[in-house]
Write a structure and sequence with these properties.
By secondary structure, the chain is α/β, with parallel strands linked by helices. The protein has a 7-stranded mixed sheet, sandwiched between helices. Strands 8-9-12-11-10 form a 5-stranded mixed sheet. Helix 5 links the parallel strand 2 and strand 3. It is globular, with a radius of gyration of 21 Å. Bound molecules: pyridoxal-5'-phosphate. Pyridoxal-5'-phosphate binds next to helix 4.
Length: 387
C-alpha cells in the first residue's frame, strides 16, 4: 500500500458506531473486563489502553501515521517540540554525560542543552554544523548524544546526516535529528543514519496554527525509555491536540508541495532583488550546500532567509510594511509568516552568539504559506520598495 493510502485508510480503527473519521477520546482512563485483565494489562502481558497520561487512541493514531512517513519502528507523542527534546535528554542521558551539538539551532533547544542540562551535570560542546572534523574532535569518552537540526532554525544550514552517523554509530553515540523544518515529506533522517528523530508538530505537521504538539521517533529500545519517562512525569500531549494532528498529517504532502512551490518562486524573486544582500535557501544552486540539499531533501522546503542591505532599521521597515506575511511566533503555517530572529526566536542569545550562528540584525526569515504566489511576491515587492 502506498504511504498516502496507509495514512488515510490504513491506520484508522473504526468503533462500533461506524464513524467515518476517528473520534476524539477525551476520556482520562479506560476500563478492564475483570480484575485479572487489569492485572495483565498493568503487568505488560496484555496490550490495552490504561490512562491518557501515557496512552490514548488519538495519540496512537497520530504517531502511527508519523512512523509510516518517517519509516520509524515506533514513536511517542509529546505536548510540544520542546517537550520532545526534554523527554529525550532526561530519559536517555545521565549525570556526567556529554553532548555534541550544532551551533545552528533554535534558541530554546540551545537553552535546554546548555543552561538546563548543565544544572544536572550534563555538558554540551558546540560545533559548526558542517565541519565534521569539529564534531569528531569534540567527542569525549562520555559523549552520548549528537544533536542537530537540518535545515536549522533560522539560518537553514544543513548537516550531512550520513557523515554524522559515520562518526556516531561506531562510537555508540545517539544521533538525534530535529526534522521539524524538512518534515518527513522532504527528508527521512532514520534512513540516513539517525537514531532518533524529533518534531515540533506545532509547525508543518499541523500546519494550520491550531495546536501545539511534538513527537519522538526511532527504535523501540530508545522510545520505550522515553515512554517510561513520560508515564512517570506526565509530559503528555492532550488527546484533542493529537486528534487535530492526526487529521492534519493526512494533508501534509499536499501542503508541503504548495509551500515548496511558493518558496522557490520567492527565492528567485529575492535573489535578483537589489536590496537583498545574502539569501539562505537549501535549493539555491549557488550555495555551497546545494549538492547536499539535493542529496538529502526532496524539495527545498518552505523557509527562506535573507539579509537586506542596511541595518536593523531597514529590516524593521520591511517587516512593518508587509501585509500578506504575519508577524507571529510560528512557522510552517499555511499563512505566510515573517520573523526577525535576532529580536524574537533567538533574542535570548547574546549578540555575539547570534552572530556566530549567522543571525544578523538585518536577517529576516520567511515561512512561506500557500496563499497565491502573485500576492506574496507583490507584497514583498512593495515592502522592499520602502526606504
Ligand atoms: N525545533 C525547532 C526546529 C523549532 O523551530 C521549534 C520551535 O520553533 C521547536 C523545536 C520547538 O517546538 P514547540 O514550539 O512545538 O515546542
Amino acid at each position: 500500500m502506498q504511504k498516502k493510502t496507509q495514512l488515510i485508510r490504513g491506520v484508522f480503527k473504526q468503533t462500533s458506531y461506524q464513524e467515518h473519521r476517528s473520534p476524539l477520546f477525551l476520556n482520562s482512563s479506560f476500563t478492564f473486563n475483570s480484575a485479572e485483565e487489569s492485572a495483565q494489562v498493568f503487568g505488560g502481558e496484555k496490550d490495552a489502553y490504561i490512562y491518557s497520561r501515557f496512552s490514548n487512541p488519538n495519540m496512537t493514531e497520530w504517531i502511527d501515521k508519523l512512523c509510516i512517513l518517517e519509516e520509524a519502528e515506533t514513536g511517542l507523542a509529546t505536548p510540544s517540540g520542546m517537550a520532545a527534546l526534554q523527554t529525550i535528554v532526561f530519559a536517555l542521558l545521565e549525570q556526567g554525560d556529554h553532548i555534541v551539538a550544532s551551533k545552528a539551532v533554535f534558541g530554546n533547544n540551545k537553552y535546554v542543552l546548555e543552561h538546563i542540562l548543565s544544572k544536572f551535570g550534563i555538558h554540551c560542546t558546540w560545533v559548526d554544523i558542517d565541519q565534521y572534523s569539529q564534531w569528531e574532535k569534540a567527542i569525549q569518552p562520555n559523549t552520548k548524544l549528537f544533536f542537530v537540526e537540518t535545515p536549522s532554525n533560522p539560518t537553514l544550514s544543513l548537516a550531512d546526516l550520513e557523515q554524522l552517523s559515520q562518526l556516531s554509530k561506531p562510537r555508540e553515540i545517539l544521533l538525534v535529528v530535529d526534522n521539524t523544518f524538512a518534515t518527513p515529506i522532504l527528508q527521512n533522517p532514520i534512513k540516513l543514519g539517525a537514531d532518533i528523530v524529533l518534531h515540533s508538530g506545532t509547525k508543518y505537521l499541523d500546519g494550520q496554527g491550531r495546536v501545539l504538539g511534538g513527537a519522538i521517533l526511532g527504535e523501540k529500545k530508545w522510545i520505550q525509555l522515553c515512554f517510561d519517562y513520560q508515564r512517570r512525569t506526565g509530559v503528555c500531549i492532550s488527546p484533542f491536540n493529537a486528534w487535530i494532528l492526526s487529521h492534519s498529517i493526512d494533508t501534509l504532502e499536499l501542503r508541503i508541495k504548495e509551500h515548496c512551490y511558493n518558496t522557490e518562486k520567492i527565492f528567485y524573486f529575492l535573489k535578483k532583488h537589489p536590496r537583498v544582500k545574502d539569501i539562505f535557501y537549501p535549493f539555491d544552486p549557488d550555495s555551497k550546500q546545494y549538492d547536499l540539499a539535493k542529496k538529502q531533501m526532496k524539495m527545498g522546503g518552505g523557509l527562506i532567509g535573507f539579509t537586506i542591505h542596511g541595518d536593523l532599521s531597514d529590516a524593521t521597515k520591511v517587516l512593518n510594511s508587509l501585509n500578506c506575511f504575519s508577524l507571529t511566533a510560528n512557522l510552517g503555517d499555511i499563512k505566510s509568516i515573517a520573523t526577525h530572529p535576532s529580536s524574537t526566536t533567538h533574542a535570548k542569545l547574546s549578540k555575539e552568539e547570534q552572530l556566530k550562528q549567522g543571525i544578523n540584525p538585518n536577517y529576516i526569515r520567511l515561512s512561506v504559506g500557500i496563499e497565491g504566489i502573485d500576492d506574496l511576491i507583490n507584497d514583498l515587492k512593495q515592502a522592499l520598495s520602502k526606504n
